[in-house]
Amino acid sequence: MPLRPRYGDLLLIVLIILPLLVALPRLGGLGGPPELWLTWVGRVAGILGLAMMLLAAAVSIRLPGTDRWFGGLARLWRLHHWLGFTAFILVMVHVLALGLAAVPASLDAAVATLFPPLSHGATWLGWLAWLAMVIFLAPTFDFFGQPHYQRWKRLHLVSAVALLLGLGHALLLAGESALWWLLGLAGIGAIVWRKLVSPRVARHPYRVEAVERLARGVVELVLRPEGRPMAYEAGQFVYLTPLDERLSAGRGEEHPYTIASAPSDSRLRIGIKDLGDASHALQTVEPETRILIEGPYGEFYGRHFPERDQLWIGGGIGITPFVGGARDIAERGLTDGRVHLFYLANSPERAYYREELERIAAGHESFAFSQHYSRERGRLDEAYLREHCPDFTEREIYVCGPPAMNAHLKQLLAGQGIPASRIHSEVFDFL
Ligand SMILES: Cc1cc2nc3c(=O)[nH]c(=O)nc-3n(C[C@H](O)[C@H](O)[C@H](O)COP(=O)(O)OP(=O)(O)OC[C@H]3O[C@@H](n4cnc5c(N)ncnc54)[C@H](O)[C@@H]3O)c2cc1C
């Protein structure tokens, strides 16, 4: 993903800096003896840290459409993680700097600054907020291995406690509180919306109409809307929550899946590969099961140079956004320029969408299709790309597949002198 700044980034920067600008006159200067500048650094770190914590929560609101201000939900989650981790580091700097600032007076003074009598509620609220942050963030450190996704999501509620405590700490200490109330409302309001309101009012009810078996461990669900169909663009994704009591796992859990149907199709088609408990259970979901859909999210085909032809490379289940794109071309009968899709699979049995994609290519001049089997030819290389799509280096490029494939392709394409800004990739993992 190229790190192009988006409008949303600018908004975030302003909102992070604003509380600091408001507080600056009260903080004094940066110069002077160590105790003065360390106090200044400590306070600045605390203000920025809390603003980032609240904004990390605010951007997790997941209102369909708003993610595009930040370049799609996948990029927004990365921003969310970055804000959360940076906030944690700043909070550590805040504590350390304020403690060190008191050391020149005496060690006792330093200890008393950090651990004052219990009557000094503001400081203890700060410590409790820090503790909640540690409990919440600890599972994400590599040391503890990969966190279990659903448990990690439930643990996010502890982050709401950290926010409330941190906000209390700031409100008791800050001279100017209106801005903190506003940021607090944005952060805590986003969590309340996500956890309590949105599941009840913002999900579209669908029912499973058919379950089409594509290959071993891969099905395509055809979903029929119970009300007005959700509008979406090719390549976008949704959160899917199945409600069937008989499912062996994942009932009531939301998981992200790409929409593989054309936007003009009133049915949603979603290709699902068995990659764990919930996706395994969906392989045998019964027709007529109720499914809640939240979205759409992302901007997979957010094209930056619409005049360029496109190169699409999809591997494994990462073919789904391209199936959606190809079905869209088949429905509309046109493309904005020429498209060449490379479908990377291990072997013919694993190229489950091949026949349909070949049919679309046969009927549409502007859509070309090439199949690549890694068991026969090894990894995709420059010679294969050039043989089938001689001008591939001139195109706008979209890549979606397993992380190892994405990494290999980025290296291969960069080696051809293609700038990163022209390569758009998606990995099916938010962690
Ligand atoms: C934008 C996006 C689009 C996707 N599109 C498709 C698709 O079209 N077809 C398809 O088969 N798969 C798709 N996936 C992957 C799919 O979401 C995971 O395979 C599924 O959530 C795994 O859940 P599980 O319980 O079966 O497995 P688990 O064993 O619980 O999880 C396997 C891995 O999937 C990830 N994961 C699990 N739950 C979630 C979640 N709620 N949110 C984000 N990541 C999660 C975790 O990194 C985990 O390591 C997509 C993922 C993303 C992020």
From TrEMBL:
Residue ranges crossing the lipid bilayer per the database entry: 7-28, 40-61, 82-104, 124-143, 155-172, 178-197
Cofactor(s) essential for the protein: FAD
Native species: Halomonas chromatireducens
EC number: 1.14.12.17
PROSITE patterns: FAD_FR
Annotated InterPro entries: FAD-bd_8, FAD-bd_FR_type, Fe3_Rdtase_TM_dom, FNR_nucleotide-bd, MRET, OxRdtase_FAD/NAD-bd, Riboflavin_synthase-like_b-brl
Molecular functions (GO terms): 2 iron, 2 sulfur cluster binding; flavin adenine dinucleotide binding; metal ion binding; nitric oxide dioxygenase NAD(P)H activity
Major enzyme class: oxidoreductase
UniProt protein name: Flavohemoprotein
Keyword DNA damage attributed: no
Keyword field: 2Fe-2S, FAD, Flavoprotein, Iron, Iron-sulfur, Membrane, Metal-binding, Oxidoreductase, Transmembrane, Transmembrane helix
GO cellular component terms, A-Z: membrane
Location of this chain's protein in the cell: Membrane
Location of the FAD-binding FR-type domain: 201-303
A Pfam family matched in the record: Ferric_reduct
Phylogenetic classification of the source organism: Bacteria, Pseudomonadati, Pseudomonadota, Gammaproteobacteria, Oceanospirillales
Keyword 4Fe-4S set for record: no
Membrane topology, from the record: Multi-pass membrane protein
